[in-house]
Write a structure and sequence with these properties.
Length: 125
């Protein structure tokens, strides 16, 4: 009887622990919004950053081993949503072999514009 109670207690503990675990299907947390008093858009704020920081490699056709073109708003949205690069600001500042852009880490001001754009819903206009 004691053996059965021990197994039951162990099973109950496992079930409780399993049900208290994290939910992997939860929505990802939105990007921080460095400037909540402004709506940042691609045309007004982000396009210039992409043009000056990304198009050297991410042109059409892509150059220097870049996997995709980022010349248009549609191409950027496809890259950040359909190709698994959901957080553009993190991707642009990866350290190691794949630093984006190759010229070096972006300033915090530029990163904040990208974060604000992502937090505002990646609006075009």
């Amino acid at each position: 009887m004691k053996n059965i109670l021990t197994k039951f207690a162990l099973l109950l503990t496992i079930l409780i622990s399993y049900n208290c675990g994290s939910d992997d299907s939860a929505e990802p947390e939105p990007a921080p919004n460095p400037n909540p008093n402004k709506t940042t858009t691609y045309i007004a704020d982000v396009k210039t950053i992409i043009d000056t920081q990304c198009l050297e490699c991410h042109s059409n056709p892509p150059d220097r081993g870049a996997p995709m073109s980022l010349e248009t708003y549609a191409e950027i949205i496809d890259a950040v949503t359909n190709q698994g690069r959901v957080d553009l600001s993190v991707r642009m500042n990866t350290t190691g072999r794949n630093v984006m852009p190759p010229s070096g880490k972006l300033s915090q001001e530029i990163v904040d514009i990208i974060l604000d754009w992502e937090a505002d819903g990646r609006l075009e206009k």
